[in-house]
């Protein structure tokens, strides 16, 4: 890390010692059966501010990109799932690679190899050692040799973003070998061709869920990842599976849900997003016209569960976690954002002004209520 990056990091971490400046109170809305808490208002403020951070960084504003001390000090995912570094790498460097085959079998194979480990460094290691990663050239022994070698050197091959099951029922005592076997079973089951004929994301989810060791949450995540490809074109507003973090966030945002399922709560929130931003006087910058989808709201509930541990410690804590583990560390390598072409936003992304060097003092000009 260079001298400038070190200074930035120290400034950000030092800011965490400052007392929180709470947002001005705003009346909670009447939502029928749902009984919102103060964290519900924080949900929308977090979404607006975290998305503003995304655009400020894209436009090369100098740090800090926010005057919210919790956001300054801790790492949070982007508001839009597809904007996160790992998702961006998947979309641009795994799925839409001009030098790799684009037929459905090969594309789905690449998505599975990448997502089962969910770690950029693992994908790049495999490519470095094995060359282009294609199903036509796949070999269990070769992949196993590379992964086993990495672990023997103390390298991590899995991301900590979410816990992967060990895959024990598949017959190996090594997690990665079970996952290679899982990929083989999925490909032998002709998942790519079966997905091509599905009419809904829920059907795709059910197909993926049918394979051993894949639970509801991972099946939903994989269905979303495959839907970034041109093989399927499901709307992300059709179907959602809440993960444990999202469920914890929902419990903090609502004292009562009146019998609504967690999935229904996520859909309710997604449907009224414009109303809530307007109610709180917040300017929310969409993803170049793409409003928050169910997957994004699912993720937001998970991130707000973390955010509230510090910003709203009084909120009832169902997860038992009281700290945010990951500290924010600025990365010097900017992302060249690019999204699935079928979303039709990439022209707007390219035209977006970058390098405007807007003075950081403007950040604290106004905290809207």
Instruction: Note the beta-strand portion.
Output: under 5%
Give the uncertain stretches in residue-range form. Answer: 1-22, 357-369
Q: What do the pLDDT scores average to?
A: 88
Shape summary = globular
Task: Describe the sheet with the most strands.
Answer: 2 strands, antiparallel
Oligomer: single chain
Your description of this structure?
The protein has 369 residues and is mostly helical. The chain folds into two domains: 21-61 and 240-347, no CATH class; 88-226. Helix content is 49%, strand content 1%. The protein has helices at 3-15, 38-58, 69-73, 85-95, 104-117, 120-130, 140-152, 175-188, 191-196, 201-209, 216-226, 244-253, 262-271, 273-279, 294-311, 346-351, and strands spanning 35-36, 254-256. A two-stranded antiparallel ribbon has the order 1-2. Helix 10 (201-209) crosses helix 11 and helix 12 (244-253) packs across helix 15.
């Amino acid at each position: 890390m260079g001298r400038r990056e070190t200074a930035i990091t120290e400034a950000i971490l030092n800011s965490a010692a400052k007392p929180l400046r709470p947002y001005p109170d705003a009346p909670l809305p009447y939502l029928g059966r749902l009984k919102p808490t103060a964290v519900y208002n924080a949900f929308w403020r977090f979404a607006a501010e975290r998305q503003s951070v995304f655009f400020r960084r894209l436009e090369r504003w100098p740090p800090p990109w926010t005057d919210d001390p919790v956001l300054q000090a801790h790492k949070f995912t982007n508001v839009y799932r597809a904007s996160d570094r790992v998702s961006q790498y998947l979309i641009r460097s795994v799925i839409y690679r001009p030098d790799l085959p684009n037929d459905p079998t090969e594309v789905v194979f690449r998505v599975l190899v990448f997502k089962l480990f969910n770690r950029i460094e693992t994908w790049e290691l495999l490519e470095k050692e094995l060359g282009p990663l294609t199903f036509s050239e796949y070999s269990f022994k070769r992949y196993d040799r590379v992964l086993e070698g990495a672990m023997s050197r103390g390298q991590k091959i899995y991301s900590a973003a979410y816990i992967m099951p060990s895959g024990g029922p598949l017959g190996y005592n090594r997690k990665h070998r079970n996952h290679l076997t899982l990929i083989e079973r999925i490909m032998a089951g002709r998942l790519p061709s079966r997905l091509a004929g599905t009419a809904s994301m829920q059907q795709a989810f059910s197909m993926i869920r049918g394979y051993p060791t894949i639970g509801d949450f991972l099946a939903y995540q994989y269905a979303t990842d495959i839907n970034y490809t041109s093989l399927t074109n499901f709307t992300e507003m059709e179907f959602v599976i809440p993960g444990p973090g999202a469920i914890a966030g929902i419990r903090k945002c609502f004292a009562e849900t009146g019998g609504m399922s967690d999935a229904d709560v996520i859909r309710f929130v997604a449907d009224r997003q414009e109303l809530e931003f307007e109610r709180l006087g917040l300017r929310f910058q969409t993803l170049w016209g793409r409003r928050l989808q169910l997957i994004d709201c699912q993720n937001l509930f998970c991130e707000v569960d973390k955010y509230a541990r510090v910003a709203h410690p009084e909120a009832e804590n169902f997860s038992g976690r009281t700290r945010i583990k990951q500290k924010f560390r600025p990365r010097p390598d900017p992302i060249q954002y690019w999204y699935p072409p079928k979303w039709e936003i990439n022209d707007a992304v390219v035209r977006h002004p970058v390098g405007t060097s807007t003075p950081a003092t403007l950040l604290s000009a106004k905290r809207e209520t």
